[in-house]
UniProtKB/TrEMBL annotation:
Organism: Adlercreutzia faecimuris
Family the UniProt entry places it in: Belongs to the dus family.
Function (record text): Catalyzes the synthesis of 5,6-dihydrouridine (D), a modified base found in the D-loop of most tRNAs, via the reduction of the C5-C6 double bond in target uridines.
This protein's name: tRNA-dihydrouridine synthase
Stretches assigned to the DUS-like FMN-binding domain: 10-312
Alphabetical UniProt keywords: Flavoprotein, FMN, NADP, Oxidoreductase, RNA-binding, tRNA processing, tRNA-binding
Length: 347
């Protein structure tokens, strides 16, 4: 893979997920670059504090890409220039969201609604491109309506409008997250344009990334849901892309240790109220013995110690579970019901 602006393995933008703490852990595990949560151009133009907070970086953080959503070319261009000024060298590139299918986004003409308005989409790309020196990319889907694959033609138009690259999620907008991503669509976009093309959709393990690269010819691989509670996926993907053996799945203790670090990093940024850790914690713990009961408790956690108490208990349950499994093995019984690793994640 030749990479997009030198990056091969990317953390996708995920609203409500790709905060500063999660980005740090994914970068540490091998993501070459990480997206912030998407930001509203309109929100930035009103100097909305919440919107600006989404762009706050950790000290020393770099290789951050920012995705804007909106539909007004002049507003998008002005805010892109503002982001560039604010972020300076930390900014890897700017992206325009043309793939989000959420009703509250699409109903305003933003996100994947722009795939139905290619002229407006092209005007946005041209305006943003004219306002910044960093590369500008577009992230979109296979098409709007199921069965009507417009992505290759759409990519050509965006490239003609000045886009420096694109990311393609191989589902239709109306498909939301149903079914599976069609990587053939990524290959067809790859064949349609000269600019770098990032493949996205359903990379859950290292081997998936290697297969996506081989089947589509994409220049980089972008990962979203597979990394939730699982930053290790990036080290697995890197190994698979280099033809090396993938590192082993993390142990229960490693998963809990990562969850604790995540909570600490969030505390450093957000203070003692780290409610947003709840969903991350559920992902880290998914499938571990005792996780189902822990879910209910996590819903009441707000401070770091609240989360620690749940993590301590799960660690103890896992230790008891392991001791039980070992005893059973020693007695010649089959090792049934053992949690952890990939099996746990699929629960
Ligand atoms: C919780 C969540 C939030 C997302 N937010 C965004 C977003 O802000 N911008 C965007 O372009 N895509 C967003 N996506 C889509 C992902 O970036 C990605 O395209 C999609 O999940 C497919 O990749 P995956 O199979 O690796 O998850 C989001 C997905 C999820 C699950």
């Amino acid at each position: 893979m030749r990479g997009i602006f030198g990056y091969r393995v990317l953390l996708a933008p995920m609203a409500g997920v790709t905060d500063v703490a999660f980005r740090a852990l994914c970068r540490e595990q091998g993501a070459d670059m990480a997206f912030t949560e998407m930001v509203s151009a309109k929100g930035l133009s009103f100097a909305n504090e919440k919107t600006r907070h989404l762009l706050a970086l950790a000290p020393g953080e770099d290789r951050v890409a920012v995705q804007l959503f909106g539909h007004e070319p002049a507003v998008m261009a002005r805010e892109a220039a503002w982001i560039e000024d604010e972020m300076g060298d930390a900014l890897a590139y700017l992206d325009v969201n043309m793939g989000c299918p959420a009703r509250k986004i699409v109903s305003k003409g933003d996100g994947s609604a722009l795939m139905r308005e290619p002229e407006l989409a092209a005007a946005i790309v041209a305006a943003v491109k004219g306002a910044v020196v960093h590369p500008v990319t577009v992230k979109f889907r296979r098409g709007w309506a199921e069965g009507d694959e417009t992505a290759p033609e759409f990519a050509r138009r965006m490239e003609a409008a000045g886009a420096d690259g694109c990311a393609v999620h191989g589902r239709y907008a109306l498909q939301l997250y149903r079914g599976s991503a069609d990587w053939g669509a990524i290959a067809r976009v790859r064949a349609a344009v000269a600019m770098p093309v990032v493949g996205n959709g359903d990379v859950r393990r290292g081997a998936d990334a290697a297969r996506m690269a081989a089947e589509t010819g994409c220049d980089a691989v972008m990962i979203a849901r597979g990394a939730e509670g699982n930053p290790w996926l990036f080290s697995q993907v890197r190994a698979a892309l280099s033809g090396e053996e993938e590192p082993a799945a993390p142990t229960v203790a490693e998963r809990i240790a990562m969850a604790r670090r995540h909570a600490r990093l969030l505390e450093q940024r957000e203070g003692r109220n780290i409610v947003r850790m709840r969903k991350h914690a559920m992902w880290y713990l998914a499938g571990l013995p005792g996780a189902a009961a822990a879910r209910g408790r996590l819903n009441y956690c707000t401070a770091p110690e609240d989360f620690d108490a749940v993590f301590d208990d799960l660690l103890a349950i896992a230790a008891a579970h392991d001791a039980g499994a070992q005893a059973a093995c020693a007695a010649g019984a089959p090792d049934e019901g053992r949690g952890g690793g990939d099996a746990a994640r699929s629960l």
